[in-house]
Amino acid sequence: MLVPLAGALAALVTVALGACTMATAPEQPLIVVTTNILGDVITHIVGEEAEVVTLMRPGADPHSFEISASQAARIQSADLLVSNGLGLEEGLQQHLDSAAAAGVAVFAAGEAVDTIDYAAEDSTGGGVDPHFWTDPTQMITVVHAAGDAIAAAVDGVDGQQIRRNANAYASELEQLDAQMASAFSVIDMSERNLVTNHHVFGYLAERFDFTIIGAVIPGGSTLAAPSASDLRELVRAIERAGVSTIFADSSQPDRLMQVLAEEASLRVTVVPLFTESLTEAGGDADSYIAMMRANTIRITTGLGPTGPGNDK
């Protein structure tokens, strides 16, 4: 009887010790990120130092996506909330404001960049453009600022490791920027004209010397709608510039073609780009760097010497 009893006691001690170990194991700090582009960037910076939760699913629209009650609760319990900070997440703003009011630490990426405004003649009447990620040099600035913010605001992370991760990822973005500049160099300056479904590429245009001819949807939000006069003016601008390739968000390239076709008999090629969201894993834009490389190839193919409009 003594041997089984001793064995039973030993088993109970083992279970108790295991339960104690599980109960005292520290939870990782939690960083909640609004958009999936920023989510990918922050994940590279954080590495294994914290849990990163991205609210926006692949393929969603950052202007209009909404979150569940459980996701809203995670925002409130976050050690750090990372957002665009320039009004991009229009459907999420009340949750961002609520978290800030509750004392959640916030890193607004847009506050770290050298912002540009929409053109004054655009129907937005100007205003700050939140699409800074289309310029990799702006994202490099964000990476360093985010690394400093995470190291300072999130207890339990190794600040030195965070900064090492940020520096390593920033080096990758420097290479990306050089690759994009080299790729775009084959496009003649007279052909560097961008027409898109809405105003997303202002930062890219400024960095790589493109001209924004116009956009089907006025302003920088997909929640806006084009008027008949907007479309007529865009058609005139396309005809004046001799544009033969226009670019649309990969989720709705047909919509752009149909809208323009209804306004005038334009003979243009529509090329889909990845503008405001990453794809599911395995897609052509399942990371920020993959997205930028894919867009570079498509823009260069559309506007370069072998593009559809350059056989004239």
List keywords for this structure.
Rossmann fold, 2 domains, two-stranded parallel ribbon, alpha/beta, 4-stranded parallel β-sheet, 10 helices, 312 residues, 8 strands
Distance between the termini: 98 Å
List segments where confidence is low: pLDDT < 50 over at least 5 consecutive residues.
8-13, 19-25
- Which secondary-structure class do the elements indicate? alpha/beta
Gross morphology: globular
How would you write the strand order of the largest sheet?
2-1-3-4
Number of domains: 2
Any guess at the CATH architecture of the largest domain?
A: 3-Layer(aba) Sandwich
Write up this protein.
The chain has 312 residues and is α/β, with parallel strands linked by helices. It has two domains: 30-181, Nitrogenase molybdenum iron protein domain (Rossmann fold); 184-303, 3-Layer(aba) Sandwich (Rossmann fold), CATH 3.40.50.1980. Helix content is 46%, strand content 12%. The protein contains ten helices and eight strands. The strands form three sheets. A four-stranded parallel beta sheet has the order 2-1-3-4, with helices on both faces. Helix 2 (36-46) crosses helix 5, helix 5 packs antiparallel against helix 6 (159-184) and helix 6 (159-184) packs parallel to helix 10 (288-303).
